Amino acid sequence: MDTYRVHVPETAYAPDIGYLQVGLYREDGPRLMTDDGEDAVRLQPVEITPLSGAVPNPLEVNFGDRILLAGYSLDRRNAHPGETISLTLYWRALAPMDVNYSVFAHILGAEDQVWGQDDGWPNHGDAPTSVWQTGDLTEDHRQLVVGLTTPPGFYDIEVGLYDAEGNRLPILADDGRWLDNRVLLSRIQVVSP
Questions:
Q1: DSSP annotation string for the chain
Q2: pTM of the predicted model, to two decimals?
Q3: Domain-by-domain residue ranges, the chain?
Q4: Per-residue model confidence as pLDDT tens digits over 113-127
Q5: In CATH, what number does 61-190 get?
Q6: Confidence of residue 7 (pLDDT cuts 50, 70, 90)
């Protein structure tokens, strides 16, 4: 008997239902097929329950010790090309700022190709970061229009912040190490019209 632990990333959308699937593959890479032509066997469904917190899908993504992404929500996780997905980001000010940072929210495909985006100041200019007070929680609404030529498939939602020169705020670990300059949230699915 083998035991495996499956990690659910902190950015996983909840509530949701997932499933476990198992398969085997050869050392040189190809997957083994079952008698019915499948390359994996689906096991039981798994309920992904939300973490407790003041906002949906709570997170603690520290952007440069200035802004914390505290959570997010989506109105849906699948769309046709040309349709809009509403994304709400919950930002918390960690320090006073004299810079107005812009938010980028992208529908991101293979090789970091952007298939939809909503970039700009929080709440489209109505909540500039330079007026945020330490501890303030800002609800930032984004509209991601799926590009008309977006092929069917799964896409990441990529989020981050940048200044007027285009410099992105780094994501910092608890010990101050630089981790990245963007966070990948839930995946969405683009389906054929």
A1: ---------TT--SSEEEEEEE--B-TTSPBPPPTTS-SSEEEEEEEEPPPPSSSSS---EEETTTEEEEEEEES-SEE-TT-EEEEEEEEEE-S--SS-PEEEEEEE-GGG-EEEEEEESGGGGTS-GGGPPTT-EEEEEEEEEPPTTPPSEEEEEEEEEE-TT-PBPPEE-TTS-EEES-EEEEEEEE---
A2: 0.83
A3: 1-50, 61-190
A4: 999 999 999 998 899
A5: 2.60.40.770
A6: low
